Amino acid sequence: MVAVSEEERHAYVYAVLRAVPRVDRGEFVNVGVVLYCQAREFLRAAVVVDPVRLRGIAPDVDIDAVRTAAEAVVLACLTPVGSARENEGLAVRFGMLTAPRSTVVQPSPVHAGMTSDPEQTLGQLLTRLVAPPT
Question: What is the model's pTM?
């Protein structure tokens, strides 16, 4: 009898993208996830910007600025931009996207996991960590 093998699983790393409307206060709302899986050559981000939640911590937040900054991360995952250093590979790009910064959209610390489907895992993380509670 031949054993049924599990789907091949690969290590991945991810960071949550956080909107920090007032850097001086340090309050944030999760707005996205960026996920990198080296074995699958997969680097993607997904975002959900919830104006109601953001205005709950900063009534005067510039929603368009937050959305633009978050979408820039999504685009940077798909298309090399800027200097040659940014284009050396997906691992370098992930490192640059998850480097600490003091801007309206900031990455969380990097976390790791195992997946057989990085795209599906990205969606699950977005639902669990970013989407408004139902």
Answer: 0.88
